[in-house]
Amino acid sequence: MSHTPVAPWILGLTGGIGSGKTAAAERFATFGIHVVDADQAARWVVEPGQPALAQLAAHFGAGVLTPEGHLDRAALRARIFADAGERRWLEALLHPLIGRAIERSLASATSPYAIYASPLLVETGQRRGAQRVLVIDVPEALQLARAQQRDGASEAQVRAILAAQASRAQRLAVADDVIVNDRDLAWLHHEVDRLHAFYLSLAGGHS
User: Fold this and answer.
1) Which UniProt keywords apply (predicted)?
2) Known binder of ligand: residue 19?
3) What is the mean pLDDT of residues 45-73?
């Protein structure tokens, strides 16, 4: 008698800039867990040859492309941060495409659960598709220090990103699970390992 494989349940993984969300996702992936990253999906839909890239060039001009025909992210960022209307136009174009790319990737998962990692899980209402939410939480002072060190950004730039993201309180309000990532990488790995063992015991993401 053949049996139909059970579709994996979805864990939403989020955290603010500098929280260690990516490092946590990478650790889950070492256990064979299927991870879809919203930032990666955002890159897929604007790769050369994708219709969205041609639409961007037609709308903003060739100045948002590199000489090799790739998206010049810095040039595009400068355009949309200076004009809220342009940012809304870009979001209206890309968000549905990104959503479909994420859905396709999650639908292909064969692990017991799959992870949808997004820095904007709370802000954009994307958590609706997740059965559980894991928040990687970190004090703001540590976020600032890590993001400045990692990206070479100024404190003002990092604070602007923080202001555009959900607050710690907003993220924690929707969390089923929380890792406070204020120690070293070994600590983060230990906490991920502990939660992974717990998640394997869950049916449909619910204890």
Assistant:
1) ATP-binding, Coenzyme A biosynthesis, Cytoplasm, Kinase, Nucleotide-binding, Transferase
2) yes
3) 95
Which one-letter DSSP state was computed for residue 123?
T
Look at residue 62 in the predicted model and tell me its pLDDT.
Answer: 93
Residue 49 assigned as binding residue: no
Closest by CA to 65, choosing from 77, 50, 76, is 76
**Residue 22, annotated ligand binder?**
yes
φ, ψ of residue 194 in degrees (nearest 5) = -65, -45
Judge whether 18 is annotated as a binding position.
Answer: yes
Homologous superfamily (CATH) of 8-33+111-200 is P-loop containing nucleotide triphosphate hydrolases (3.40.50.300)
Q: Return the domain boundaries, the chain.
A: 8-33+111-200, 38-110
Task: List pLDDT tens digits, range 140-185.
Answer: 999 999 989 888 888 888 898 888 889 999 999 999 999 999 999 9
The answer to whether the pTM exceeds 0.70 is: yes
